[in-house]
Amino acid sequence: MYIVMIASECAPVAKVGGLGDVIFGLSRELAIRGNDVEIIIPKYDCMRYDHIYSLHETFSDLWVPWYDHSVHCSVFFGFVHGRKCYFIDPHFNKNYFNRGSFYGNEDDTERFAFFSRASLEFMLKADKRPDIIHCHDWQTGLVPPLLFDVYKNQGMSHSRVCYTIHNIKHQGVTGANVLRETGLHNVEHYMHYDRLRDNFDHSAINLMKAGIVYSNFVTTVSPKYAWEVQHTDQNFGLGDTIHTHSGKFGGVINGIDCDVWNPDTDNLIPHNYNVDTINLKHKNKDELRHRMLLRREFKPIVCYIGRLDHQKGVNLINHAIFYALNNGCQFVLLGSSPEPETGDYFWRLKNHLNDNPDCHLEIGYNEELAHLIYAGSDMMVIPSLFEPCGLTQMIAMKYGTVPIVRNTGGLSDTVFDADYANKPYDKRNGYVFSDFNNEGLESAMHRAIGMWHSYPHHFTEIAINGMKYDYSWNNPGKDYLNIYEHIREK
Predict the structure, then answer these.
(1) Residue 428 buriedness (CB in 10 A; 0-12 / 13-18 / 19+)
(2) E strand or H helix at 118, and its extent?
(3) Dihedral through CA 404, CA 407, CA 409, CA 413, nearest 10?
(4) Class of 2-255+474-488 per CATH?
(5) Are 2-255+474-488 and 275-468 in the same CATH fold?
(6) N or C: which end of the chain has fewer CB within 10 A?
(7) Contact of 110 with 120, CB cutoff 8 Å
(8) Is residue 490 scored above 80 in pLDDT?
(9) Whose CA is closest to 452, among 271, 319, 281?
(10) What integer pLDDT is reported at residue 191 of this predicted model?
């Protein structure tokens, strides 16, 4: 099968969050299974070019229709750790992708609307006719309507579209002028409630809604999150749209890259280990303490790795730090916040706790350090308000670090409580709480910390249970191929 991924990120060259990891990991899994997979992303000036092999211009004269004229683009090709990637580079005075950042500009919807049109124009002119075009998040939401209302009539009637929602909170709500810019000139047609008009702002269009309405199949990144966006307010206003298209909607849990995240082969940790040699994990714990200037003492290390924002339960993360310190634990944090006030708070907290021998807060992100924290910690807290999938809990389990998570989204689909899960004991792999408050978090942390101190053998069994789960891209790869085959037959 010939598959083209269109996305705004691809790890490790253009990565802001889990989206980039998914594009790379899923593409590789599909290629391993014998499919021809290509990736199209913008050519950002801030990409990690050192991860691109043999980057060269492959299409020098691409003219992309835009408003009442055309924009000249070049398309570059290179291999990203074996993945075939195309990078679209517009020569335009607005410098859409030469901003020193991936997102965060006032004209983001315009930038990615252009990218959507340019991706299809490139496939048309380069004579690429994929069986499946797999689009991701609001940034590529205009690809399906452009394909079926413009490019289908120009010889691209063969392709079918799978559209994946990674985080429904961010929808790309924007003015209708974007339609005229991309060549969808019949604005009144698209401003209908059943098409692109936003469900609440009737003067605006919704790019994520466009992807849902016009694609052949819609997925989100875990079965529980798929249920939540259909039946709770976590759909952020798109509930009616999803209900209308529920016949083509489902959840597929993401995977993790087990070549990158594997304690048995990880060259970024000082001591490798596996299920049979999990006792070597304590050597990484010693190295983590040395790196973080923590005292060597018989205590568990609790950690947090990730963004510091409302979605991730930032108030509960803050509470977890002090609860751990007050209950015989050490705490390590690695993260940063896109919210200035939250970032300032954690910098102040870092300074306040700077001399505490049981705590270290690292503000920012460091890939090498993340590996060591996963390998050296005993537990990880993930108290998210909502979590479409989550990768950190799966990585933590791979490293024998027991997750303490809130019962939401992909966390519910992957972590099963050591005491209360409706599963055999050898399938229980963490601690789960439901109430989004301090008491809920404490109930799970209390049980996990108590197990570590009082029943260390049982705690290790929970850690080993987690290591044995297969959260690679193996099963998601099968699921997506089944979806692709399903929509090809239509």
Answers:
(1) buried
(2) helix 108-125
(3) 70
(4) alpha beta
(5) yes
(6) C
(7) no
(8) no
(9) 281
(10) 93
pLDDT (tens digit per residue) in 368-415: 999 999 999 999 999 999 999 999 999 999 999 999 999 999 999 999
Tokens 């298209």 sit at which residue?
245
Q: How many CB atoms lie within 10 A of CB 253?
A: 21
* 283 beta partners: none
**DSSP E strand boundaries for 143-285:** 160-165, 173-175, 204-206, 217-220, 249-251
Q: What count of other Cβ atoms lies within 10 Å of the Cβ of residue 265?
A: 12
The residue with tokens 């200035």 is 340
Report the alpha-carbon distance of residue 9 to residue 252 in Å, rounded. Answer: 19
* CB-CB contact of 425 with 457 (8 Å): no
Whether residue 54 contacts residue 73, with contact meaning beta carbons closer than 8 Å, is answered with: no
**Looking at 237-378, which runs of residues are DSSP E strands?**
249-251, 301-305, 330-335, 359-363
Measured from the Cβ of residue 487, the count of other Cβ atoms closer than 10 Å reads 16
Contact predicate 398/426, CB 8 Å: no
| Separation of alpha carbons 378 and 13, rounded Å | 31
- Residues 230-248, mean pLDDT to the nearest whole number: 94
Domain range annotation of the chain: 2-255+474-488, 275-468
The pairing of strands 83-90 and 36-42 is parallel
CA nearest neighbour of 170 among 205, 131, 145, 137: 137
| Angstrom distance (rounded) from CA 364 to CA 420 | 36
166-218 pLDDT tens trace: 999 999 999 999 999 999 988 899 999 999 999 999 999 999 999 999 999 99
Q: How far is it between the farthest Cα atoms of the chain?
A: 72
Helix (H) or strand (E) holding 461: helix 456-468
Q: Give the model's pLDDT for residue 48.
A: 94
Q: How far apart (Å, rounded) are the C-alpha atoms in residues 436 and 385?
A: 7
* Band of pLDDT at residue 323, cut at 50, 70 and 90: very high
Q: How far apart are CA 481 and CA 132, in angstroms?
A: 10
What's 8's DSSP letter?
S
Q: What is the mean pLDDT of residues 83-90?
A: 98
Q: Which fold has domain 275-468?
A: Rossmann fold (3.40.50)
Question: Which residues make Cβ contacts (< 8 Å) with residue 18, sequence separation at least 6?
Answer: 166, 221, 254, 389, 390, 391
- pTM, rounded to two decimals: 0.93
Q: What is the pLDDT of residue 131?
A: 97
Length, in residues, of the chain: 490
Element (H, E) at 346: helix 340-352
pLDDT digits (tens, 9 = 90+) for 441-455: 999 999 999 999 999
